[in-house]
Amino acid sequence: MTTAFIATTGGHLTQLVNLAERIPPDPDSIWITHANEQSTSLLAGRDVQYIPYVGVRDIPGVLRCVLRAHALYRSRRPTRAVSTGSGIALAYLPYLAARGVECHYIESAARVGGPSLTGRILRRVPRVHTYTQYRHWSDAHWHYGGSGFDAFEPVAADAPLGDRVRVVVTVGTAAEFPFTRLIRALAPLLAPGGDLERATGRPVDVLWQTGCTPVDALPVDATPFLPAADLAAALREADIVVSHAGTGSALANLAAGRFALVSSRVAQYGEAGDDHQRELADELEARGLSTYRAPEDITVDDLLATRKHGVRRLPHVPPFALR
């Protein structure tokens, strides 16, 4: 038996890697995603088929990938397919379901209020099982199987600062949506001689993980993309983490034990296709796993307050319940 794990890079892939650990394994598996610094490091040592990037609402890209789904079926004969989206799921799951493959689509944890466009389409595809990570909108069509955030709980923290203040700012890898507003708001707070340095009496070292956000006009030393292992190490060592409210970044922060200050992209400013990031930010705050601030409202006190909180991974996490 072979399981095909299918996901776009970024938060979709991070979620699938985490959820795959909670799904009964098959003797054989293959991963289908796009190649970048995150995926090649996160999936090192696994059987991976890298395909061209399928963007947001990229209908031609989806149609091209149907041929790859056909090739996968002919070469590997998968018996089960599991996907967390997004557009790549539209290419593979309908084709594989029509071939009799057991197909499961798990809606992203970013979708706190209801399914995405991809989810709404796949819900109507025969023989594709659909899942939500939130009980409050589960129904006969959307089965609640668990949440990727179930693995974490908040804890108190009070670690002293060292000789330097280590900060990680991460805005994920979204190719279509820059988040310049967050970088611009943080730059003066975190600059040499800036507000955080004056408040702590210590120099501030910042890792700016900026993805596709243009920062040439800003006074930051950007690292657009990092291997997953390098980012995880930086998060574990950080004193303060500021993050966009993306699911992949949220899970990476939590896995590193970091209680982050999060800001959400806003559709009105061209930072996202809709405002689901604010819903996720509110969900994380309600769980006690992070705190939310709009970029223009962030203060040094907000940054330092995150150090009073930590996150712990639970020793036992329930399986994700596939139908």
UniProtKB/TrEMBL annotation:
Which residues are in the Glycosyl transferase family 28 C-terminal domain? 167-298
Top-rank taxon of the source lineage equals: Bacteria
User: Which InterPro entries has this protein been placed in?
Assistant: Glyco_trans_28_C
| Any one Pfam family match given in the protein's UniProt record, by short name | Glyco_tran_28_C
Q: What protein is this chain from? A: Glycosyltransferase
